[in-house]
Amino acid sequence: MGASQARTEHPYQDLMDKTGFSLEQIKNLQKRFQQLSGNKDTVSKEDLASIPALDNNPLRKQIITAFFDKRNQHENQVGFFEEIGFEQFVMVMSHFRAPTLKTSEEEREVMRKEKLRFLFNMHDTDNDGTITLEEYRKVVEELLSKSGALGLEAAKAIADAAMLEVASTNVPHMAPDDFYEGITFEHFEQILKGLEMETRMHIRFLDVDTTTMRCGKTTS
């Protein structure tokens, strides 16, 4: 009886368990989802592309695509959705959840790994488990060329040099004529090993900041 009442009282209990968001956080995300979708059941890439805060982001395309990437649903699926519903939207947003004072070291490590995997998926555009030189070039070219400071050729040269350095670090005994297939997730983890990820990935580009959302019980 009590369990049944709790389920009725918290219709998003399953989503709360999967994501770590509080009920109030999910209600706030629901309001944002309704704004983006125009009160429809799903959002499209066009809906996310209308967010002003994304206009000048050099990774705008990758960020939007990430919301429709099935790999980011914690279900070991591959491929892309045409549109996503609210629960799928929240599952993606959970990658940006910041730790709290109550978050254990083990939970922090899980959060860090999930954030790294999300970033890796953004760059591994063909879902083959490796960020190839071509994929890496595209990211660097977009980051550097859109700043207006460098042309495409200069950006390409920087990407090639960076990938060569990554190759020499991860496969130190490569022969001059060996081919480096690309950055695996394990390599990616090593590259970003010293970078504190748990609190760096926020969701301000959606005008929702989970670090300032109240985590207590709702009073409504």
TrEMBL record:
Cellular component terms per the entry's GO annotation: cytoplasm; lamellipodium; nucleus; ruffle membrane
Q: Where is the protein situated, by its record's location annotation? A: Cell projection, Lamellipodium; Cell projection, Ruffle membrane; Cytoplasm; Membrane
The biological processes this protein is annotated with in GO are:
cell differentiation
- Keywords noted in UniProt: Calcium, Cell membrane, Cell projection, Cytoplasm, Differentiation, Lipoprotein, Membrane, Metal-binding, Myristate, Nucleus, Protein kinase inhibitor
- Give GO terms: molecular function aspect only: calcium ion binding; protein kinase inhibitor activity
- Record keywords: Metal-binding included? yes
> Domain of life, per the record?
Eukaryota
| Name of the protein described by the UniProt record | Calcineurin B homologous protein 3
Q: Which organism is it from?
A: Echeneis naucrates (Live sharksucker)
Taxonomic lineage per UniProt?
Answer: Eukaryota, Metazoa, Chordata, Craniata, Vertebrata
The protein's gene is named tesca
